[in-house]
Amino acid sequence: MSIQLKKVLISDAVDETCVQLLRKHGLQVVCKYKLSQDELIKEIPHYDALIVRSDTKVRAEVLAAATKLRVVGRAGTGVDNIDTEAATRRGVVVLNTPGGNSISACELTCALITSLARNVSQGSQSLKEGRWDRKLYTGEELSGKTLGVLGLGRIGREVASRMAAFGMKIVGFDPMVTAGSIPNVEVVSLDEVWPVADYITVHTPLIPQTRNLINEANLNKCKKGVKIINVARGGIVDEKALLAAVKEGVCGGAALDVFSEEPPKSPGLLELIRHPKVLATPHLGASTAEAQVS
């Protein structure tokens, strides 16, 4: 069944190439960024299609007002900012681009892992402040360490492949993946990941089963000093529990690109971000020129 579209609203910034491609196919494209929920509700009745990234929240109220809407396109992987159940009830198709940012998200993950291992962020900041603290920021080699990969989809597999090249042992959990199906990855149960991993990186969608997956109970099952990396979705890591674990030395450090609140404003979340053992970036997983076009 084909869907006839005429007018498209783009509510989060995408590469100009994408805009021109839509116009080339005869669509009327309107770009209006940073709309509030009320503004979006007033605007959406005029459009057949809506294109978003992660900032726009397509809630049930928005969909109820979208009397002409046929398609919501998510320029990216995760669709947790879209009420997919409400969309289905209203006959609105939700599409995403799961492969578009795989390499970019993977490469950022690998950069964060290596930065945690070698205290790159702290060392850089110290030098900028006029100090020469070589011994203070002594790190560790990744070769011989164990990386736990939670979620073995496109991004998780790319990360596993690259970090195996560093000499890391890779253990992975994914309920949809069978043992022996991925080169250089030992597929194990979730409970088998916690006690053996020196680093744990998350590459799952945010769904009820993964919300607060990395919580107090599971952190206490980990090796003392485990390092946590999240370039997937805010909400998968219980940030309050992570802060406590970092303070208590249960967790040796964390690298976070995504947060339960974006941009972060709550005092507890800001305390986590500002902790000296935490490396934080502002949701840069898909922020490359290549991923923006893909």
Mean pLDDT: 94
CATH fold category name of the largest domain: Rossmann fold
Category by helix and strand content: alpha/beta
By CATH, the superfamily of the largest domain comes out as: NAD(P)-binding Rossmann-like Domain
Number of strands: 12
Q: Which term fits the overall shape?
A: globular
What's the number of structural domains? Answer: 2
Q: Could you name the ranges where pLDDT drops below 50 across 5 or more consecutive residues?
A: none
- Largest beta sheet: what is the strand line-up? 8-7-6-9-10-11-12
Strand content: 15-25%
What is the helix fraction of residues, given as a range? 25-40%
The span between the termini is 25 Å
Name of the CATH first level of the largest domain: Alpha Beta
